[in-house]
Each structure stands twice: as C-alpha cells, then as structure tokens.
C-alpha cells in the first residue's frame, strides 16, 4: 500500500522511516528536496511565468523577456505541422493527420478486434489519408510526395512501416521455425544481417544506393523505398519478438491440434499465433514505440518530417535564437504519441493478464 492511502499519523511515521531515519538520511533527503524544488521552480519560471506566448511582439519581445519564447510556435506552427505542403491545401494535411489518429483509436477499441473490421478500418484509413495528401481526384489539386512534410509525413512513415512490417515479421518468424533447414537457416541469416546493421545505413542504402542497382521501372519514389527499408528493419526485430512468443507456447498444444486433424495453417492461425502474439505483447508495444521515435532518422536522407520542419521553423534569421522552444514543442508532440501508445500497451497487458499467474 502506498503512503498516500494511509492515515495521517501512520503516513507521517512511514515518511519519517523512509526519508529521515538517520541524520545522514535526513540531510540527503532535505538537500534532494531543495534541489528538486529549485529545478521545478526555474523550469516553471522559464516555461510559464516569464515566457512570451503571443506572436504580436515578434522576436524583439522575446529577446527582451527572460523566459521562453513560445511566440516562435505561434508564428511558425504551420511549418512545423505541415512542412512544405502548399499553404492553401494545408487543411488536407491536418485532416489526414486526424484520419490517422481516428484510425489508431478505432483499432484500440475491442469492438473492432476482428479480422474483417480491423482490416476495413486500416484500408479505409490509409486510403483516405493517401487521397487527402496526394489529391488528383475528387477535385483535390495534385500534391507530390516531395512536398509532403511535417507531422503528416511522420505519421505516414510510421503507419506504413507497421502496416508492411507486421505481416513480414510473422512470415519471417514462421520461416525461421520451419522444419526445413535451408529455409530456417536462410531466414535466420537474413534476420541477423538486417539486425546487425544500423537503421541509418539501411535508410541510406534504400534511398541513395539502391537506384543504381535497379532498373528505372522498379525504382519508384524515394519515399516508398525508404518505407520499404524501414519496414524491413522493423520486421527483422519484430520477427524475433514473435518467434520468442511462439517458443512460449507449449508443444503439447500443437500435438493435440495434429491429433484432431487440423492442418498447418489452421494450427498456426487458430492456436499458435494468437497465443504467441499475446506472449509477445509487451515487447511488441516497446518495438512500436521505438519505431515511432526512429521516424526522425529520415531527416538524414532528405525528408521534411516534423524534426526537419522544426529546423526550418527557427532557421530564419529572426527566430534563430528560439531553437530550444521549437525542440521542446516537438518533444511534447512525440511525448503525446509515445505516452499514449505505452499507456495503451499497459491497458492491453492488464486486459490480457500478460505475465500474470
């Protein structure tokens, strides 16, 4: 039981025992509390009390203040969220981001946890996102992928990576467990080779090097090549997570399914994979969170995702001093998405009682 739920007298005794049991412990606790209060006060004073929030005063008002310059966000938020997307069409980019959020939220509702419903949600959501971003139909002006940027591009890369990576990961995990040595060993070599390479090198290879080895008709746009490389990297790690979940399923269940006359695909789809994905849920959530944060690496190969958009937001001469505020705002965006994913993962673990006996 935590100290908060105890009676007042017992709570005081508990706190005294934990933090002030000896003179040395009392000094350490007091010094630590003083440092914590000082840091929190300075942070609040910089971020809130002495900060400038409106863009009316411009950079001059920020330079005269002693706190944070949130005016740069008020003045340059369009660049951060929409990047190079045409100004008059930025509503499409915003609506596309909202579509992805709604798609993910619907995917988290248990009522949609059937194969057909979840497939319908993702197919409809991705199609809506793509139509809104690219246009060319329904009276929407065409916008090429080279003009995509900001938060919409980050979400597109993340969703596409998961959409392509999960099926490939399951396929690789099953192939590595194959009873045919040449299949299992070849798959293991592929997985280990991909996992031994840094993600940046894979992105650079797919974005820059691969076009030299492919015919023109097979090259495609650089964005889609990078997404394929990202999905391959994700699949290699997720395949090992899924394989670990499969190893946690008792072999007797597979033998019992064989005795009932079930074929390989029935045993795999109805018995092995559901239990394996349940066992692998904590590590899967962790891998998804990591993949969302790693989308920032595409800036290395020239994409204008949200981090590059933030660099452009303060890159002009008048706002160059406000880079800390821009990065703090982008960090808050990443935190909102990642914290939501992690909390939902914790909810799933409690719902499915993963790791409990």
UniProtKB/TrEMBL annotation:
Residue ranges of every copy of the ABC transmembrane type-1 domain listed in the record? 151-342
Q: Where's it found, cell-wise?
A: Cell inner membrane; Cell membrane
**Keywords for this entry?**
Cell membrane, Membrane, Transmembrane, Transmembrane helix, Transport
Where is the chain membrane-spanning?
A: 20-41, 91-113, 120-142, 148-175, 196-217, 223-242, 297-314, 326-347
Q: Which Gene3D superfamilies match?
A: MetI-like (1.10.3720.10)
A cellular component annotation (GO) from this entry: ATP-binding cassette (ABC) transporter complex
State the superkingdom: Bacteria
Q: Which InterPro entries match?
A: AA_ABC_transptr_permease_3TM (IPR010065), ArtM/GltK/GlnP/TcyL/YhdX-like (IPR043429), MetI-like (IPR000515), MetI-like_sf (IPR035906)
Does the keyword Ligase feature in the UniProt annotation? no
Topology in the membrane?
Multi-pass membrane protein
> What Pfam families does the entry give?
BPD_transp_1
The family line of this record is:
Belongs to the binding-protein-dependent transport system permease family. HisMQ subfamily.
The protein, known as: ABC transporter permease
Please name the source species. Answer: Aureimonas endophytica
Lineage, broadest ranks = Bacteria, Pseudomonadati, Pseudomonadota, Alphaproteobacteria, Hyphomicrobiales
């Amino acid at each position: 039981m935590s100290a908060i739920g105890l009676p007042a007298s017992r709570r005081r005794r508990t706190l005294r025992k934990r933090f002030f049991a000896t003179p040395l412990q009392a000094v350490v606790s007091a010094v630590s509390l003083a440092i914590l209060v000082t840091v929190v006060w300075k942070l609040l004073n910089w971020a809130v009390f002495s900060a400038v929030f409106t863009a009316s005063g411009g950079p001059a008002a920020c330079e005269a203040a002693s706190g944070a310059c949130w005016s740069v966000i008020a003045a340059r938020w369009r660049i951060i969220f929409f990047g190079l997307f045409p100004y008059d069409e930025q509503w499409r980019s915003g609506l596309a981001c909202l579509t992805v959020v709604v798609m993910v939220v619907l995917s988290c509702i248990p009522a949609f946890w059937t194969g057909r419903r979840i497939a319908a949600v993702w197919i409809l959501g991705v199609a809506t996102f793509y139509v809104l971003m690219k246009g060319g139909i329904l009276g929407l002006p065409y916008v090429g992928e080279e003009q995509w940027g900001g938060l919409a591009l980050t979400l597109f890369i993340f969703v596409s990576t998961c959409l392509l990576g999960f099926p490939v990961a399951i396929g690789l995990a099953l192939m590595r467990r194959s009873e045919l040595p040449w299949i299992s060993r070849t798959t293991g070599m592929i997985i280990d080779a991909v996992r031994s390479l840094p993600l940046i090198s894979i992105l650079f290879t797919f974005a820059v090097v691969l076009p030299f080895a492919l015919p023109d008709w097979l090259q495609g746009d650089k964005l889609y090549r990078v997404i394929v490389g990202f999905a391959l990297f994700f699949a290699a790690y997720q395949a090992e997570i899924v394989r670990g979940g499969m190893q946690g399923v008792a072999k007797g269940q597979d033998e019992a399914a064989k005795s009932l006359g079930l074929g390989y695909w029935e045993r795999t789809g109805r018995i092995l994979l559901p239990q394996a994905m349940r066992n692998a849920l904590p590590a899967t959530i962790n891998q998804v969170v990591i993949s969302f944060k790693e989308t920032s690496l595409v800036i290395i190969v020239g994409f204008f995702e949200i981090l590059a958009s933030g660099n452009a937001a303060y890159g002009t001469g008048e706002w160059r001093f406000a880079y800390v505020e821009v990065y703090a705002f982008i960090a808050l965006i990443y935190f909102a998405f990642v914290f939501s994913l992690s909390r939902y993962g914790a909810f799933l673990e409690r719902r499915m009682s993963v790791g409990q006996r």
